[in-house]
Amino acid sequence: MQHDKVLILDFGSQYTQLIARRVRELNIYCEIHPYNKIPTIIEKYKAVVLSGSPQSVRGDDALHPDLSSIRAKKPLLAVCYGAQYLAHFSGGNVAPSNTREYGRANLSFVDDNDPFFKGISIGSQVWMSHSDTIKTLPTNGVLLASTHDVEHAAYKIEGETTYAIQFHPEVYHSTDGKQLLQNFLVDIAGLEQDWTPDSFVDETVADLKAKLQKDKVVLGLSGGVDSTVAAILLNKAIGDNLYCIFVNNGLLRKNEFSSVLKQYEGMGLNVKGVDASARFLDALAGVDDPELKRKAIGRVFIEVFDDEAHLIKDVKWLAQGTIYPDVIESVSATGGPSATIKSHHNVGGLPDFMKLNVVEPLKALFKDEVRRVGASIGIDAQLLGRHPFPGPGLAIRILGDITAEKVRILQDVDAIFINGLREWGLYDKVWQAGAMLLPVNSVGVMGDERTYEKCVALRAVESTDGMTADWVNLPYEFLQKTSNDIINKVKGVNRVVYDISSKPPATIEWE
Ligand code: XMP
């Protein structure tokens, strides 16, 4: 089934992905493309959105899209830079603003007879972020909305289905932003709202069946949401021709390898658990630099995976849980498209599994959509709601060099902390949590004995994407009980501290 699609042209705004997410929340499919790489088959798209940009339309480095296949031919919504672009280069004028135009503003005039502003009235809060302002509207421009400081906050072009807005409908602070996008996409441009998790599952499974037929596919499971959802979709399409490999690098949480493996088997996946803990620990012996740890773990993972993939006869495909943010081609600050796709110059030197054809069933989805798809195919809510866990695992939470004994200590501490969060109903309020084993011994007293043992730091953060984060104000009673449990139950630890640093300037992991 072909869905109606929206084309979002990116001019480098920090909010471009948010536009796409808001459109998807309306159950409408959309794609982001750089402003200077407009798809040649434009008929595929039923409407186009121009994003904002850090550039100014008045500057020498203003970004000039070639809109000849779009303008006056398709419904067009221009946001911020897009709105200024249409004004400045089509008979209007853009100039520096006299007052700062950042943050919240309220509409002081709205033409609510126009379908674009249906259900939105004077006073509606909108989010501004621009230093230029539209002084005069372009040829055939008709004013649709103003705020106290911005007269030309929204306009349309008579004779075209072209709308332009100075504010950002995609940010949550524009309280009617989603309504506005819906008015434009559904009422004005006539798109169907039929992009749903269920439709995605049906179509993806059908596509995978057609593409893979009787071929064998290998996939590395990590225990995380993306690889699990990818595996279940592939399993629905090709059953046991999907060979999953779940590697224990010895740096997982306590009992995680066996419990996740059991869970995977319960889902009907053809999965092989490979315990390579010793191989990883050997490679890490004496390594204390965080980046070298990451490199060693990455190298051993590839070796182990390659060995295992070789055991599967005639495997043709490598499946990956890549998601949409990983594949969007970004526009750099100077406006030039920056290639993010790696070129494999040295193909001969790659491990064999990397020479396989690649299949990526989730590459059109954002993270929250992967979760929605996961829920619709019946993946356990507990698995879908799991905190993120870094690929190098506990290696980057043991500061300094790694030994089996240190891993044991940290696994025990981490298990007390995480189980405690669950028992106290705090787990889902935290975005990510874990414990760090510090390379310090400190003096303590237990019974009448002097101790000289390890210190652990607990970390729990709130975040939406891991880019910024703040520490969570966990109840004192919880911290008190957890600290007591750790010191009493984990041999080798006599001190517990709680990390109260935000990111930035700190990071979430300590290494
Ligand atoms: P930081 O420490 O940079 O972490 O604030 C942000 C998010 O990324 C995770 N993280 C990693 N994930 N490999 C991964 O797969 C890594 O090397 C790695 N380093 C950090 C971290 O757990 C947090 O969710």
Q: What does it look like?
A:
By secondary structure, the protein is of the alpha/beta class. 30% of the residues lie in helices and 26% in strands. It contains 13 helices and 20 strands. The strands form 4 sheets. Strands 2-1-3-4-9-8-7-5-6 form a 9-stranded mixed sheet, sandwiched between helices. Helix 1 (16-25) links the parallel strand 1 (5-10) and strand 2 (29-34). Mean pLDDT is 93; it is low at 335-346. The structure holds xanthosine-5'-monophosphate (XMP). Xanthosine-5'-monophosphate is lined by residues 294, 388, 390-392, 396, 432, 466, 503, 507-509.
Task: Note the main attributes of this structure.
nine-stranded mixed sheet; single chain; binds xanthosine-5'-monophosphate; alpha/beta; 511 residues
